[in-house]
Design goal:
PilZ domain-containing protein; cyclic-di-GMP binding; 1 helix; Thrombin, subunit H; 7 strands; globular; PilZ_domain
Length: about 130
């Protein structure tokens, strides 16, 4: 099997990570942006380019395409904008796939925070 060093990983949390989100609504003619109130969600897994989240709330991703996410993987709070890609109904809510819209700096921040978090998890297991 060929290993591609540049291929990203996906980190699945043992216990989903708490996060908040606000939906982004583009106003007519892209003149302005309107944000919804904050909602609670859980991040199930994450990679530098995307994540899977769970929310009890239904989001019509056909009408609201973008979301602002705020979460902390280890110590530094992270705020990113994402685009909904898919949704699935679950027993107690909905799962959503989100493609993160970021740059190399934000991708590196996610990677570094995940490394620190994982190191702490491994220390606790010893």
């Amino acid at each position: 099997m060929k290993y591609n060093r540049n291929e990203y990983f996906r980190y699945t949390f043992e216990e989903p990570c708490d996060a908040t989100f606000r939906l982004i609504k583009q106003n007519e003619g892209n003149v302005g942006v309107e944000l919804s109130n904050k909602g609670a969600c859980k991040i199930i897994d994450i990679s530098p380019n995307g994540l899977k989240l769970f929310s009890e709330l239904f989001i019509s991703i056909d009408q609201l395409h973008h979301v602002e996410l705020n979460f902390t993987l280890d110590t530094n709070p992270i705020s990113m904008v994402g685009e909904f890609v898919w949704s699935h109904r679950k027993a107690w809510g909905h799962e959503y796939g989100v493609k993160l819209v970021g740059d190399n700096e934000s991708e590196q921040m996610i990677i570094e925070e995940l490394k620190k978090r994982r190191r702490k998890e491994m220390e606790l297991k010893k």
